[in-house]
Amino acid sequence: MYRMNLHRTWFFILTVIFVSCEDVVDVKVKKTESQICIDAIITNEVKPQIVKISQSVDYFDNSGNYPPLTVDSVVMFDNLGKKYVFENMHSGEYVYEPSGTDTFIKSSHFILKVYRGSNIYSAQSTMMRSTIVDSITYKYNENSKGYFVNLHARDLKGRGDMYWIRTYRNGKFMNNPSKINISYDAGFEQAFSDSLEFLFPISLLQINDFDRPYQLDEKVKIEILGISGDFYQYLSMAQQQMQNGGLFASPPYNVRTNFVVNNKNAMTPVGYFNVCESHSLEVEIKE
């Protein structure tokens, strides 16, 4: 009898706890000032190089719309004294068209300056080396009724090379946060590897959508960018923040930037500037 009453007591306590958890708490969150977002990933490829500038939105704004921001000019300088002026495309994008005389070479140092009124946003980057894509293979999976691709590439000799592997499906960048694919010496930061083939998670898991395998005649492009250690950490923290959720989520915070501004009263900058050596390869799925 005592045991039955004890069970009823615990049932009552748990019921009260779970019912009380259903109370709606209306929390008023103070709106913060907008920030200037500068996305400036420049490569050595002879194709349009784009700096995207937009304005931040409130944390709880789920519209996905980031208003483009107009600035006075966007200019990049290298350590050889060359000046690169980015043309305003009037959509928050500033474009530079490379030519054969440009000095986008390994180990070159670059400074990017964004001018907006009396405010100057600046950041620095050194072009880091990258490795080539040896090949991209694919194999049909009967259970999934589609093809899965595999990247074949080898880390450069010497410790401390970091890479950002970007996958494009039919020309569209696979930009899901879970697909941010970064590598430290073909593996991970604590792997202590060197000059090896890229590991399985990087070469297979991160470049396929297992819910939607590739089909015949689809095109797959894989690009390997050589990135700095700071940018490696930036991408890692950005991925953590974009996937931060659930009951045990950590408090959100702005991922650190390498931009500084000359005026403390100016809009706070977020985003990153990195100049990368890039190598890529594209294949078409055929029988």
Describe the protein in words.
Helices cover 13% and strands 36% of the residues. It has 287 residues and is mainly beta. The protein folds into 2 domains: 36-128 and 257-276, Sandwich (Immunoglobulin-like); 133-228 and 280-284, Immunoglobulin-like. Strand 10 and strand 11 form a beta hairpin. The termini are far apart. The relative contact order is 0.18.
Which characteristics define this entry?
Immunoglobulin-like; disordered N terminus; mainly beta; five-stranded antiparallel beta sheet; 13% helix
Sequence-ordered SSE layout with sheet pairings:
Layout: H1 2-20, E1 36-43, E2 49-55, E3 73-78, E4 83-88, E5 93-96, E6 109-116, E7 119-126, E8 133-141, E9 146-153, E10 162-169, E11 172-173, E12 181-184, H2 200-203, E13 219-227, H3 229-242, E14 260-261, E15 269-276, E16 278-284
Care to give the gist of this entry?
The chain has helices at residues 2-20, 200-203, 229-242, and strands spanning 36-43, 49-55, 73-78, 83-88, 93-96, 109-116, 119-126, 133-141, 146-153, 162-169, 172-173, 181-184, 219-227, 260-261, 269-276, 278-284. By secondary structure, it is mainly beta. The longest helix is centred in the first third of the chain and has 19 residues, at 2-20.
**Record field, number of beta strands:** 16
**Average residue-wise pLDDT:** 87
Under the CATH scheme, which class of the largest domain? Mainly Beta
Count of the domains:
2
CATH architecture of the largest domain: Sandwich
The N- to C-terminal Cα distance equals: 73 Å
Query: What is the CATH T-level topology of the largest domain?
Result: Immunoglobulin-like
Backbone shape: globular
Portion of residues within helices: 10-25%
Stretches with pLDDT under 50, minimum 5 residues: 1-20
Classification by helices and strands? mainly beta
Strand order of the largest sheet: 14-7-6-3-4-5-2-1-15
The radius of gyration is 24 Å
Number of helices: 3
